[in-house]
ADP/GDP-polyphosphate phosphotransferase
Amino acid sequence: MIEGVPSEADDATDAAAAGFDAPTGDPADYKKSGRLKAAVYEAEMKRLQEQLVLLQYWIQTQGLKVLVIFEGRGSAGKGGVIKRITERTSPRTVRVVALPKPTERQRTQWYFQRYVEHLPAAGEMVLFDRSWYNRSNVEWVMGYCSEEEHQEFLRSCPEFERMLVRSGIVVLKYWFSVSFDEQRKRFEARNAEPLKRWKLSDMDLAEHEQYVRYSMAKDTTFQHTDIKQAPWYVVPSDDKLAARLNCIRHLLSRFAYVDVAPDVVELPRMKEVPYVRPPMHEQTFVPRAF
């Protein structure tokens, strides 16, 4: 059920101008600004999350191995869609991998090595919140890898992903694309809100400053790794609510799943056992403030 990827523009503004993210829904579902209304979003998200639970059961029963990669600029919306995917699903079936910076030992390993141990087993869907594509994006732009390492990644990554697909892993790759102006608005909002300021890192600031070089990195990455076996799917995300729905809807469409959810069960009665519990006053309770 894999379909081709159109030649997407780099940022969401250009994508909109090119018509790639033109909505097909009822015009009444959108605000005057063109963004999706919150009530419409909530209703559709509820429906999609119900379908994600059904997909979860299907993955379990069929023993599928599913890997979903989320990439894109800072504040593009990767974390938001991952949170909605996992909100109603079981962490035993749908788990998130968000690796920190590699250790000194990991720096000496084969580049893909630390990611391999997190790949899905049968009956699992693994969501990578950033992935091995750090090498061709963050690391290359910020000078954390050499040009030789960058070129070797671009050569070896397509073969690595083809190998994953041949081994039976379903590989889906999503690139969340946000325009410079929208990214700036989101960073300014984080900066203004003390409870969100922790989300604005030095790396985010450097990335914002290097917006054009990140565009170059993304374009180069796509030229080498947008392969038939594991194509890139671009999600214009200036309207983050619509982006979440579009991404999840597309994810669901990649699988010909059916409803194999378990039937309602009859809850068992408590078995009577001769036992006397210790006095309640011997336990220490949390103070009841409410």
Summary: Residues 1-10, 12-19 have pLDDT under 50 and may be disordered. Strands lie at 65-72, 94-97, 124-129, 169-177, 232-236. DSSP finds eleven helices and five strands in the chain. The domain at 12-261 is CATH 3.40.50.300 (Rossmann fold).
